[in-house]
Specification:
The chain has 144 residues and is mostly helical. The chain has a domain of 92 residues. Helix content is 59%, strand content 0%. The protein is built from six helices and no strands. Helix 5 runs antiparallel to helix 6.
């Protein structure tokens, strides 16, 4: 078909060359990273954390989050599910304590992601944590 009769949307477009991922700045930054006094890489040490208690929580959470990221993808949700089932299904009242572990884990993740969440996300996550804590209290007191 001649070029003039083709539909404009079907015409091949000229694509620009992709920029290279390595720049002069990144190569010079990697040389400086090895000479860091603290032993940390330049990118990790230059991360801006929030001030106060939030920043200290973010700094303390870096290691555990990297560890959780290295685990198989389904292991963490599977373990949380097992703990919740154990907390609700086992016949003893004290097994409600098993509900505190998922509540603490979800609360930790909620606090870390709080600034990025929408209002609906904040309410949903806070509701899940509060629900687990209420379930724990009801289970331990024998009402559930």
């Amino acid at each position: 078909m001649p070029e003039s009769k083709r539909h404009p949307a079907r015409r091949p477009t000229q694509r620009s060359a992709k920029p290279s991922h390595k720049s002069a700045q990144s190569t010079s930054g990697s040389a400086k990273a090895g000479s860091s006094k603290s032993g940390q890489s330049k990118s990790a040490s230059s991360k801006a954390y929030a001030p106060g208690w939030r920043g200290s929580l973010e700094r303390a959470s870096v290691g555990p989050l990297f560890f959780l990221n290295s685990l198989p993808r389904l292991l963490v949700p599977l373990m949380l599910g097992v703990l919740m089932i154990m907390g609700l299904a086992l016949p003893w009242h004290w097994t409600g304590i098993f509900l505190l572990i998922p509540a603490a884990f979800l609360g930790w993740l909620m606090v870390l992601s709080w600034p990025l969440l929408s209002t609906a996300g904040k309410l949903a996550r806070a509701g899940a944590v509060i629900g687990l804590i209420i379930g724990c209290v009801l289970r331990v007191t024998g009402h559930l």
